[in-house]
Amino acid sequence: MLSTVTALKKATILEALCIIVVAAVLALVIHLVRFGDIPRSMPIDPLKQASKELGISLEIPLEEALDLHKGGRAVFLDARSPVDYNKGHISGALNVPAQDLDAVWYQVEPKLLGDKPIVTYCDGMACSLSKDLAVALIMRGYDNVRVLKDGWTRWLKANGPVEGTQVDSK
Prior knowledge:
Elements: H1 2-33, H2 46-54, H3 62-70, E1 75-78, H4 82-87, E2 89-90, E3 94-95, H5 101-108, E4 118-121, H6 129-139, E5 145-148, H7 151-157, E6 162-163, H8 165-168
Parallel strand pairs: 1-3, 1-4, 4-5
Antiparallel strand pairs: 2-6
């Protein structure tokens, strides 16, 4: 009985070693035929990574955003929820919740035709919805996308034109 248990242990160890050797050989073959380097880590901030790849900062200064809006030379996309958008938003902005881009894309895409810059925004310094939306647009082939960081709060403080249920009543 003891020799049977010892033989099973040896067989199990041998099988495990065979699996490890096959996996190592397979990994080596894949590494040799793969084009390009394997990334060592994921980018910390997709917006910074996109900025680096495009060679420009995707964050837009408030003054520039106000100027583009005043001249009607940009499309503004509010990445917040429809509830927040309806309470108040930048005048003329389209509501494109970042997490629902696919659901509203057919309505939004025709309004993004042309060469106007696209400015995405949400609210709060920690809000990443505008960044997420900007990255999603860049991945769809748009290269003139900018992010107005803490956009809604900063826009209100600058007395930029707004519309919505709560701002219209003030």
